[in-house]
């Protein structure tokens, strides 16, 4: 007997309903076991801090414990790849949004797309990228520095936390937009970068305020500008690059993403419970003490923000 | 005395029953972490950090600091007993420490390294207390050219680790340099020898390499030889160092404390460089340098002191500038911040309780660790009486567990096994792994700082190394160390010739 069109349609219809209800049932049961939160860096950094701050209060909102697992390597890519190839069921999430998502892919061939191959769930915070100079530097403002650097191409040096990272990429975008040319000196991490600036070995250092605050308070270094879109409430005197007429908007975002193909209801449910974590008073208090700059975005806006930065860097960086 | 009054206040803070318990707990946890291979203070402190949020501010710091220096105490144990270095800093401890254990002198080796750690830790803390602000300033002046000069000096010292044959040692060191060049180049971001794999982008892991070449290689080799020699390790004779041991170790411990502390305060402070330099210095100062590599106690005492002093030194940039020089100190910074304390120049004035309380607790902690570790030595030495056929699989299990725990990566486990086989072959052919590991650690650092210095020098080029005073002096010193043996040889030959012509 030849299967009639109705039967075929009926079969696929049932299948679709079955699959849909399975996804829904999955979402209703979700989460039925602990959720693995993958951090692509060693314990102690900003990515690790936010993951642990979230995990500390998450259980009462998510219903299951969040287990932070560090899988450091290749600038966060090892962790990203692990999550990318994990089952898209919401039980494996990646702390993403930084260099590994928007800047490294422009410097290196990767086996997956760090933006398109993930489902953003929620953004928790940003880490601003600031330009710092030594306190006794002759440059009182970013304009002075850029004017001076424009007249002396290749004369001044800047330190960052590593090749291909967001801080390195930010300066490359700046160079492209303003036409200045600077010398890159890559260090290992923010602490070494700032030590190099405080010791007078480089002219400018790229760092985030939560790394630099002690040296700023101690009067050793001062910020010239921030690459964020808005001034920081804690540093109201530091202008943004956009205010200065330079079209650069890059920040180090930190949020959770799932592997591509994770059912929408699960992403939504995870987002809703994590949003409650974001609003939790204890989480906020702890984050404030760690000087983490909380900045919530929903899945769609997080995806847009990731794309904005990804494309901006892609335009300026040649592979 | 200005400094003593606040210190007494600090002791008053640290000696409350609660805080005493936290010092003890921290030291204990730290010792256990240090003894277990692969399990390091970083992961443990990251796990315990949330627990400390609810604790009193000073108590939580006392507790975490205790774990950190406790782990440094424990680190030497596996190096001496089983030839397994948990980290780069204890690679040199393996050389003579394990030889001592094989001669039945595990007790004195452990005892002396505990005492050296105590001395290094205590002298380091005293230095942190007395001269932190001045030192922090000087340490910042240490830029890439100075670091390059220091590392070059350290490189000349690798020659002193080579054991019987200098040529073999240097050959092995060259292999170490090659292995060290694997991974993404830190200056230009170019991949080297990664064969398109992600795993190799960060280079070959130190822990798989060290645990494989030393620990696994040693075990495989011993299993093969067991038939001929009976037990590999002699039953330990005495537990405590002899009078002669104390006499031999006095100066090495003093020198190790100063050297270790000095290197510990540098940005990117490297306990591994501290222990290597201490080993090399001791060998040069020794009356009988040929004892080195065959179980010389000063070769254990000096380096073990130096790496603990370097640990204490790391607190200088953290407390005075807010700059953590390694990942454990970065976690300590997070702990301070969680309690609303901002490290930096103002710490001393704004939170004297924290500063002096923690300093005082570190004195107490060092004493506690010494008291704690002395009876443990007896226990650890008992371990060696376990038959090797039972002990060796257990060691392998711990090594593999540790290899996995480090990065949660199964490839690290495979790498450990692979290097274990390589380590076994090296032993068979009489090649020492120590120069390999140190060349592997120092090579990339040397290259990195050379590149950075040349970028900073711009047009002036190589002259940057000579015109800057600190690097100039270090390079001159390196030159003297290199040329001195040649001069000595030439003078000796001339004297011989004149003697023979006179005859």
What would you note in describing this structure?
The complex is a heterodimer of chains A (319) and B (503). With 319 residues, chain A is α/β, with parallel strands linked by helices. Chain A has 2 domains: 31-127 and 252-316, Bordetella uptake gene, domain 1 (D-Maltodextrin-Binding Protein, domain 2, 3-Layer(aba) Sandwich); 130-226, D-Maltodextrin-Binding Protein, domain 2, CATH 3.40.190.10. Helices cover 45% and strands 19% of the residues of chain A. Chain A contains 12 helices and 11 strands. Chain A has helices spanning 5-29, 46-62, 77-84, 99-102, 104-107, 142-151, 166-178, 189-198, 209-217, 264-279, 281-289, 299-316, and strands at residues 35-39, 66-70, 92-96, 118-127, 130-134, 157-160, 183-186, 204-207, 221-226, 252-259, 293-297. In chain A, strand 6 (157-160), helix 7 and strand 7 form a beta-alpha-beta unit. The mean pLDDT of chain A is 90. Chain B is mainly alpha-helical and 503 residues long. Chain B has 2 domains: 4-157 and 233-404, no CATH class; 468-503. Chain B has a two-stranded antiparallel sheet with strand order 1-2. In chain B, helix 7 packs parallel to helix 21 (469-502) and helix 11 runs antiparallel to helix 12 (298-313). The model of chain B is unreliable at 227-231 (pLDDT under 50). At the A-B interface, helix 2, helix 3, strand 7, helix 8 and helix 9 of A face helix 3, helix 14 and helix 19 of B.
